[in-house]
Specification:
mainly alpha, about 65% helix
């Protein structure tokens, strides 16, 4: 997203620039945290819920680095798996709204003349929870955000 925003800014700064020159002028990709900070400073980022995006970034990092780690396999039991699933569900609960924001932005770029699919947008967090935890929903408490980052 930031690269697209920077590409738009480059074109607005110099409309005579060729597409190749504009692409070459856009800064290289960064890590997600740096990209979000750059996006927050960009004009298009000022209209976004940056707190939700930062929370989603933290959740994504927890999922990527700790989400599958339940410890030594010989020590794992039912309770440990359920406690870890609760943390994983909290991280997914934090990630889904950020993904929803990015998806809406991408939809606006891909389909600029079509209205956003509000039914899908409104139901997205629950759809993600159902997709990821549908088989465990009866065993887990209702999702609470930020459990994954509270350790």
């Amino acid at each position: 997203m930031l690269r697209v925003g920077n590409l738009i800014t480059a074109h607005q700064t110099d409309p005579t620039m060729t597409f190749e020159e504009a692409v070459a002028s856009v800064p290289a990709d960064k890590l997600l945290g740096g990209t979000l900070h750059g996006l927050a400073a960009h004009a298009m980022g000022r209209t976004m819920d940056m707190d939700t995006l930062h929370k989603a970034r933290q959740a994504r990092n927890w999922i990527a680095h700790e989400g599958a780690s339940i410890g030594a396999i010989w020590c794992v039991d039912h309770d440990l798996i359920l406690r870890h699933a609760v943390k994983l569900r909290a991280a997914v609960t934090d990630l889904a709204p950020g993904d929803n924001i990015i998806s809406q932005w991408c939809h606006g770029l891909a389909e600029p003349h079509d209205p956003p699919p509000t039914d899908w947008i409104n139901g997205y967090p629950d759809a993600v929870d159902n997709w990821a935890f549908g088989h465990l929903r009866g065993l887990l408490p209702e999702p609470a955000s930020s459990l994954a980052s509270s350790e």
